[in-house]
Write a structure and sequence with these properties.
The protein is of the alpha+beta class and 277 residues long. The chain is built from 13 helices and six strands.
C-alpha cells in the first residue's frame, strides 16, 4: 500500500431531509459525511499528488461515526501539485452544488482517518458527559497520554497499539517500520528519542536507525529535526553525506547548509550544494 499524507482537506456534510412531522434534531444530522483531501505519496526525492474522497455515516444514536469505505482516488494517474489542486477545487464545487456544506478545513500533514477521529472527538465533546475519560479516537495519542513510566509498560502499551509483539517493537526491522503510518511514526520517534529512560531511548535509536524509517517521513519534517532538534539530528546526520539528496532534496539541503543545528549537518549539506553546483 502506498503511504499517503494529507496536505489539504475539507470535511463536508449533507443533512438529512426532514419532513414537517420530524422530531427535534437529536445531534444525528450528519447523515452523510465526505472528506475530500489533497494527498501526497511521498517518494525519495519528490512527491506525487492525487485527490481522495472518503465517506462516513453515524451509527445508532449518532454519537459514533463509522467509515463507509477506505476512500477512492479521483485521478487514475499521479498528478502534479497544481493539477491536483485544480481537481480538488472542481470536486469541491460539485459536492457543494449537490447540497454539501463545508464544516471543517485543514492544511496539514495527517494520517488516513485523522479527520474522522477529529470529528468523532468533537461530537463526543458536545454530548453529555456521562462517562469519564472518553478516548480521543487516535490510539497512539491515547496511549501516550496514559502510558506508564516503566520501560516494560511503555513497550507493552505501544506494541499493543501497533499490533506488534514486544520483541518486534523492541527490535524493529524494515517490515515492522513499514506498517506504521507516517503520522504515527512522526509522533513516536521524538517520544522515544527524548524519553527519560535510557532503555527507551535505545529503542528509539533502533527505530530511527532502520534504513527505511526516515523515508517514510515528510522531507520537511526531517529538515525541521535537523534544524532544531540536536538529539534527532545526531542520529540522522551520518546519513546526509551518502543519502542527503534522496532523503531531503536540493532545496532542503541548501537551507540546511546554513541552518543545520550541528556542524556535521551543515558541512554535509554544504558538500551536496557544491556538488550540485
Amino acid at each position: 500500500m502506498p503511504r499517503w499524507l494529507e496536505r489539504r482537506g475539507f470535511t463536508l456534510q449533507l443533512p438529512p431531509e426532514r419532513g414537517a412531522d420530524a422530531g427535534p434534531d437529536d445531534g444525528s444530522a450528519f447523515e452523510k459525511l465526505v472528506r475530500l483531501s489533497l494527498v501526497e505519496r511521498v517518494g525519495l526525492v519528490r512527491g506525487w499528488f492525487n485527490v481522495r474522497e472518503a465517506r462516513a455515516e453515524p451509527t445508532g444514536n449518532g454519537e459514533r461515526l463509522r467509515a463507509l469505505s477506505d476512500g477512492r482516488a479521483l485521478s487514475w494517474r499521479w498528478l502534479r501539485r497544481t493539477e491536483a489542486d485544480r481537481l480538488l477545487d472542481e470536486r469541491l464545487g460539485t459536492l457543494q452544488a449537490m447540497g454539501y456544506t463545508v464544516i471543517d478545513t485543514g492544511v496539514c500533514m495527517r494520517g488516513r482517518w485523522d479527520w474522522l477521529y477529529d470529528l468523532v472527538h468533537k461530537r463526543l465533546a458536545q454530548a453529555p458527559a456521562a462517562e469519564p475519560s472518553e478516548p480521543s479516537g487516535n490510539p497512539l495519542e491515547d496511549t501516550l497520554s496514559r502510558i506508564g513510566s516503566s520501560p516494560d509498560a511503555i513497550v507493552e502499551s505501544l506494541a499493543a497499539v501497533f499490533e506488534l509483539s514486544p520483541h518486534a517493537f523492541n527490535h524493529p526491522d524494515a517490515r515492522v517500520v513499514h506498517r506504521i503510518e507516517p503520522g504515527d511514526l512522526a509522533r513516536l520517534l521524538p517520544y522515544l528519542i527524548h524519553h527519560d529512560h535510557a532503555e527507551v531511548r535505545a529503542i528509539g535509536r533502533r527505530w530511527l536507525g532502520c534504513p527505511t524509517a526516515a523515508y517514510q517521513l515528510p522531507a520537511e519534517l526531517v529538515q525541521r529535526w535537523l534544524e532544531t532538534d540536536e538529539a534527532l539530528a545526531s542520529l540522522l546526520e551520518g546519513r546526509l553525506r551518502p543519502e542527503g539528496l534522496a532523503l531531503l532534496g536540493p532545496d532542503s539541503l541548501l537551507r540546511l547548509s546554513r541552518t543545520g543545528c550541528t556542524h556535521t549537518v551543515r558541512d554535509a549539506s554544504r558538500r551536496w550544494v557544491q556538488r550540485l553546483g
